[in-house]
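Two proteins, back to back. First:
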Amino acid sequence: MSQAWPYSPQPLTVLKYLATTIMTTHSLHHVVARKAARDRSVAEPVFGLEEDVEGVLLGLGGNAPEGLVLEMEYRRKSGRGVREWYFVPASAAKTATASTNVAGTSRFRETVVLLEDHPLYRRPEAEDEGKTEGEEGMDVTFELGLTDKQRKDREGVVLPYFDAQKGGGEGGRILYDMGVEDDFDEEEDEI
């Protein structure tokens, strides 16, 4: 006679805690919609059981014909988890992943790709890597760059720690030249 403890976790929760590798499938449409919401800094949409709508198990667009997203989490012995997301096209399940060439050896064809490499998931900034900051055409009311005069003035400033580096072997001694505005107090200096 087995009795379930009232405060024990659900079996799936225990299994996820003990497993070293967890693979979870997601819909490509849902993952792309969540990423688009994150990029715009708005609340992510919820799909499926998270919608809390009676009778809904899978949200709209859940059965995408182009493929699915596979989330894989591998936990090392140290307990640190390594998580990676992959895109598995629907045609990968239909076609064979190994093909035979003339010599009779089999070579594998890559069908599964990283989710970051998928064109729908890729960031638009990744395509514009060649542009510099001035070419982006940002509309700001102030200048972000330095003029030639400002650049020369900045190079002419001598910082106080340069003298300490020239001495060689003097350790962390701080050199300070008192200015006119400084007030010298002998009592504080004795401490």
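And the second protein:
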Amino acid sequence: MNTQRLVAVLMSQPVLSNVWWPFTLKRGLTRQHAKSLVLWLNSSLGLLLSFGNRQETRGAWVSFKKQSLGELPVLDVRRLSARQLRLLEQAFDALCGQPLLPLPQMAHDPVRAKIDAAVAQALGLPDLTPLREQLAREPVISLQPLRQRR
């Protein structure tokens, strides 16, 4: 976890891997939907749900079982309005080329803050900064017990 920066990426062509799982959206969903979902998954809310569905391991390693990922609660991009999709797509396009800091540094990551701001704006949510700051303190992410952090 100390080097991980993303939990989801959008690829322009089919890919194959042995350490992560590719997926495709259902028929009828567009690239705009895909961009919205990837932005959501990399937001503090998406990270919170992802890490809440992890398998326990030791140290900096986190395991995700394929079945757990298939059941992961995510933003239903099919229910977003055209305006919401447009806002999320614009944020994705503006931020996709900017590097994110490793997850333990997310509380001070300006790009992650912009992702959270875009998700909050599009979905009518309050500021996600407090969630991002608390998530960065989570021992699985920070690799430090809470009692040692101040």
